[in-house]
Amino acid sequence: MPSQLQLHEVTVSYDDFTAARNVSLTLDQGQIGCLLGPSGCGKTTLLRAIAGFQPVASGEIRLHGNLIACGGYSLPPEKRKVGMVFQDFALFPHLDVRRNIGFGLTDRDRGDRRQREDEMLQLVGLAGYADSWPHELSGGQQQRVALARALAPEPDILLLDEPFSSLDSELREQLAGEVRDLLKRNNVTAILVTHDQHEAFAMADRVTLLQSGEVAQSDTPYNLYHNPANEFVARFIGQGTIIAVTVGENGELRQGPITLHSAARHGQPGQALRLLIRPDDIQYTEDSALRLPVVGRSFRGAEYLYELEMPGGQRVHCLTPSHVTVPVGSKLPVAFHLQHVVVFTP
Amino acid sequence: MSTGDTSQIWRKLLLVCTLLITTLATLPGRTAELNVYSARKEALIKPLLDRFSADTGIDINLVTGKEDALLTRLKNEGRNSPADVLITSDAGRLYRAEEAGVLQPFDSAVLEDVIPPHLRSAKNQWVGLSLRARVMVYAKDRVKPTELSTYEALADPRWRGRICIRSSGNIYNQSLVASMLANIGPEATDAWLQGLVRNFARPPQGGDRDQVKAVAAGQCDVAVINSYYLGAMIQSGEETEQAAAERVALFWPNQDDRGTHVNVSGAGITAASRNPAGALALIEFLANRESQQWYAETNNEYPVRKDVQHSPLLQSWGSFSADPLAMTELGRLNAAAVMAMDRAGWK
Amino acid sequence: MEIGSTVPDSVSSRPRRPVRSWRAALVLVAGVIAVPVLVIIASLALPFSGVWQHLLETVLADYVINSLLLMAGVGIGTSLLGVSGAWLTGMCEFPGRRFFGWALLLPMAMPAYIIAYTYTGLLDFTGPVQTALRTGFDLSHGDYWFPEIRSLGGAICMLSLVLYPYVYLLVRVAFVEQSTAVLEASRSLGRGPWQTLFSVALPMARPAIAAGVSLALMETLADYGTVDYFGVSVFTTGIFRTWYGFGELTTAAQLASFLLIFVFIVLALERSSRRRMRFHQGSLRKHPSRIVLRGWRGASALLVSLAMLFAGFLLPAGQLLLWAARNWRGTVDPAFFHIVQNSFLLASLASACCLLVAVFLAYGKRLFPGKLEESLVRLASIGYAVPGIVIAVGVLIPFAWLDNRIDAFARDTFGISTGLLLSGTLAALVFAYVVRFLSVSLQAVESGLTRIKPSVDESARSLGLSAGRVLQRVHLPILRGSLLTALLLVFVDVLKELPATLILRPFNFNTLAVRTYELASDERLADAATPALAIVLIGLLPVILLTRSISRGGGARA
């Protein structure tokens, strides 16, 4: 079975600026993908290229096996079967909710249309709001209408452009989960664009991290977190610091007097490497001999996030249960337990 | 402090308003000048007014407009109106002014002498200053003068689709119909209007000169216009106008009975005038030989004075007998005339 | 400044006194401006004369039907032209787009009666086109059919050509400001560019279209010069004929009142029909991506725009130039420059006054959103739909009455006569202009104000600024674009204004419009071309300034 969405070496440029270069990715039917990255990395441009609002300079985009864009050819958006949810929802202000949802259903007869509209209203949990107007709804409700509207014509793929950025942060995580459930239940292929990795992790099966228009890594969220392919990925995903270490005689990784990881396998003795340290790699151990000076801490409710100073001068983070209160300036007893050893050659 | 700020703004606004009003408003002027409300266009009256100023040293302030607008202004301004003299281009409107009480009677032996009584107000409140005849013009190559006779005959079916005339909203037409009412009575006038309207070549449009051009171009064969427009076209110096005027000829209607319908432009002294002596001087000036000559030569109108020679162009049209109907009748029957025209569908 | 006043509190806890005086002033000003309209409507209380019977029996039906047809025709014409122009230059890309973006506004500088004169001169039976047709094909009258320019259809064309810029202006701003995302949403849901235009962009632009068309229709109702010249019997010609023909001012005023009531009803209907809808998507402005038209599509876009510009401006202006070139020697004398000065002075003064009043009223409405204030302001702005001549009468009567009262009082008390203070002066004329054109400034200022959120006001008040200061230091700077638009629009309108000027102007004071009219109505069209051209040229400057501020997006944007 052909994959649902296929980007092959796609380059998108406009005004002499190359927004995305040689991007390839594949999504199977029912998968949820994500284009993640800092602003200006080209993720929105790629999404718009998939939607048909941006022409492709070279490469190919195929949807459900059909070529929809390549250098010199672009199928108009209205002919692609893509559904799109915009950052500001873009509901039609002059139409009520029902007519918004039914907007893309022009090829059905009235009975069919009404039925589908009701279906979608049910699906997003807005059954009683058919006659309301967009300006009368809350942000979360508007987003659900936008979703229903995009899904109503049964598109081959659903595109979501920063769908949660206009909503309150408390709402975001909850909605992200709900939307994912909804898409999965209906076997909808979707691709989401966001700069927020939490959203990406909550929703996507496969995350493509972009850096300045090029793919830094395309993988599952777990792998992105635990097996970053390069320093950019390592720094962008999750929290962590990259510190300079040297390989000891027995292959252990050490910085100065501290042995960070003993099980050898990485590099030759004497070799200088760069090691990724995440907060969960350092654990508070009450009776540990190793005590690192505390230079900062922030209360997180259930936890404290301590900022500790390494002998090399770099700062690393450590999460502890919040009953552990060590003031700034004293030392915190910790032990290094690297679950995944992520090293890079400098 | 908010109160202080707001009252600051108030003070400034008040200052601006007073300044504005004082610069724009005027207090009554001195009496070494005359104020004229004229329905005659500036180009047609200013030269004479300038000459008066040059002769007497009295400055003239002029405002032009449509008769009825000026009349309303006079009525509302009441006794404080700054106007001294009212000049109109139609007798009917003079009558209206008289009836509205905005004019005052005056005594002038000079004027009584030179201006015939039927061209003057019965109550001595206005005088006619120039005579205009409403004549027929016909296409020289399509109509023989023997086919034309009276205004009434224009309702004859032989003229179906061959007549051009301007809108019924025009005062000259209204006065013409008023004269018909006075001369042949309401029923006959109604019948005449029905026939006339059926004979229109096109819905009434444009002014008198447009009617001449339409005849020249072949859209119609006969038109009814004020004679001086033809004169103006002949003397215009503009090719198309002159060419059009060449292709038509003038015909004096009703020469075998009452005579051609005539109208006057005239003037009166306003009731509110603060300088009635000066106003009278102006009117007498407009009735003197030089002014009357000017009317004849520059405007191609007929002077009201019999002792003034007609211009060569007027002479070329020949002499004619004019309807001796009193001008006051034109005013009295104006409303009835408009109603009759409305009933007949004369747009 | 007292520390206490900076305590962030709701507006109602501010000291009451200045608030009440603002409100009283608002009611007063709006009331004074509404006086002429009220005077006209008051005529309904006077007995209805016998002329009414006659009117009903003969011409009234004609007047009403023709007026309705004229309005319908002009409504359709201006919508078609204005929306097409706005769509092409606002949303599409085609060769010459930038030029046409501002050039399509040029017909605004052309008074309707002037364009009527020029087209008549060209297309009339005796004009060059038909004459050439006849000589070329050896035809004579009755042998061929040619559309009659001096007809209802002709009037519709003339007025549409000259009034479509109002629709164009407002709709273009609306299109450009529309959320691109909404349009893209429509395309992602399967509608092509044209379908998107009709099912999304146009409906969303409805308030702008309605505002533009209602401005155009009000101008149409108020027009007298064109319909008179063309011999079309509409309501305004009826009002005039009743006044002039029958000498019955009261009946004329009563007719005008019915016209006003009709306008009120239509405006109210339109407003209520879109009560529940919203048209503004509070959106993030993205750079609008234009629909590129290439090949024959681009060529037709170019042709359509060119045709609009040609018919509405280039052709009449060209004809005027031709006439003026032949005749200017006769008409340009020292008096002419005096007249130019007068026109300029009057237009500047009137537009400034209009702006002041508009800002005051619009801001007052914002501070005190009450039914009374709302209705008064609406009443004050109805002047736009009233023929200039009717407003002139509505100004004449109360001013004269007031002056006479003051004079009588002065005579009785001080023994001196003050005479007429305001009547027959520039003050009366400027006041008439304000009454007539307030709607234009008000619309521009209000649309700018609606883009400033109330929270801006509140934050400024909480920082200790009084209502007046907020206006001065916060709103006016943001509103600069709208204020400029308001000024320019009224300037051009006053420059072209004819009937009210004719009636109310002081002694020895003529404007270009008056001069043009006197010459044209004396059938000296060629001589009238020079002052007419002067009107167009002077009016071009503000129109071009307007277009520049539009293309910067600052025209109606707050």
Task: Describe the structure in your own words.
- The complex is a heterotrimer of chains A (346), B (347) and C (558).
- Chain A is an alpha+beta fold.
- Chain A has 8 helices and 21 strands.
- Chain B is of the alpha/beta class.
- Chain B starts with a helix and ends with a helix.
- With 558 residues, chain C is mainly alpha-helical.
- Chain C contains 24 helices and 2 strands.
- Chain C has helices at residues 16-42, 51-57, 60-91, 97-103, 112-123, 128-137, 152-177, 180-188, 193-204, 206-222, 225-230, 235-246, 249-273, 295-331, 334-367, 371-380, 388-414, 426-450, 454-462, 467-478, 480-496, 499-504, 512-521, 525-551, and strands at 92-93, 291-292.
- Chain C has a two-stranded parallel ribbon.
- The radius of gyration of chain C is 25 Å and the shape is globular.
- Classes of the chains: A alpha+beta (346), B alpha/beta (347), C mainly alpha (558).
Summarize the structure.
The complex is a heterotrimer of chains A (346), B (347) and C (558). With 346 residues, chain A is of the alpha+beta class.
Query: Major sheet of chain B, described briefly?
Result: 10 strands, mixed
Please compute the radius of gyration of chain A using only Cα atoms.
Answer: 24 Å
If interface size is counted as residues with C-beta under 8 Å from the partner's C-beta, which chains form the largest one? B-C, 72 and 81 residues
Oligomer: heterotrimer
Topology as H/E string of chain A? EEEHEEEEHHHEHEHEEHHEEEEEEEEEE
β-strand percent of chain B reads 15-25%
The share of residues in helices of chain A is 10-25%
Give the beta-strand count of chain B: 10
Rounded to the nearest angstrom, the distance between the terminal CA atoms of chain A is 42 Å
What is the typical, i.e. mean, pLDDT of chain B? 87
Q: DSSP strand (E) fraction of chain A? A: 25-35%
Uncertain stretches of chain B: 26-31
Q: Biggest β-sheet of chain A: count, sense, barrel?
A: 6 strands, mixed
Low-confidence stretches of chain A: none
User: What is the molecular shape of chain B?
Assistant: globular
Strand tally of chain A: 21
Total helical segments of chain A: 8
